[in-house]
């Protein structure tokens, strides 16, 4: 791979981690939301940079924007999650997996009517998983979410029926 | 993770299609896209060509006159209010493609990934430089890529029984495409041309088996 392209890929990975997988302590939910907006702007810039230079052989999750990202807070820890990977059951914390299994098999369409979303696909599930993994004492009920956004336009996304059932209303 | 899995609902893809001499951009916004389109890397190649530094063309653009109504309907369906919605950042990508001579669409109901209805956000005001631009940036791709060459290919194969079309590239550009372009000239310069495109896109012709 060309050296310049490798540098770009590395920078993209760095920003992607900053935007979506970094945990922050002592932030309130609104501060997390502002961070989410700011980082999604930076993430978009670096994805555009990659799109201009990288070949079509690069993995699709490195060169396409994710559809949804969200921040979550449990006790003192703030984390982020996106819709970009479909987790298996073993990837989820047991507490969360048992809640998710109530609405269907993880990775398949949910048994609930009125939605076509797959169970465990949503950004909420990834963010909650991140929070529970980093804060073992946290309970499911103590997790607070920011507004979910679409990184391309920074517009708000409504919570899907699957997530309303598992995590409650916004 | 299986690389061949279609996880299109995780991504906000840029998809590009042609309707005669118009180019259309669709932002998938987490919509479930058929395998045939999801695994087709030509969308990425086309975007790369458009965003190339050499592409210095810039057209005037206009916004869909119905856009405010559509955004208001989003307010209720997505539970948004004015605080969560930044009009400038919403329009940025779509305006970028309109400036590059492409009719730019967004998926309307982004809460439901299986709903593939689109609305026009921004469109270019096409002037005389479009012809030159089209053959330099927009159509070259379709000539190089045999996959997306089907309508002309079928016609050409009727006329000449040939196997390798690329040898005939010059011939096609000089005679065939220019002739076709002239017949579409009035349609391209029609200020209401976006209405025709909106109808075509909303019927989701791209996602049918005929694509």
Counted beta strands of chain A? 7
The strands making up the biggest β-sheet of chain B line up spatially as 2-3-5-6-4
Shape of chain A: globular
Low confidence ranges of chain B: none
The strands making up the biggest β-sheet of chain A line up spatially as 1-4-3-5
Q: How many strands, what sense, and barrel or not for the largest sheet of chain A?
A: 4 strands, antiparallel
Computed over alpha carbons, the radius of gyration of chain B is: 18 Å
Q: Could you give the order of the helices and strands of chain B?
A: EEEHHEHHEEHHHHH
How far apart the termini of chain B lie comes to: 29 Å
Which protein chains make the most extensive interface, counting residues with beta carbons within 8 Å of the other chain's beta carbons? A-B, 35 and 40 residues
Q: How many β strands of chain B by DSSP?
A: 6
Beta fraction of the residues of chain A? 5-15%
| First-to-last CA distance of chain A | 45 Å
Give the radius of gyration of chain A: 16 Å
Number of helices, where a helix is a run of at least 4 consecutive DSSP H or I residues of chain A: 6
Tell me the helix content of chain B: 40-55%
Fraction of helical residues of chain A: 40-55%
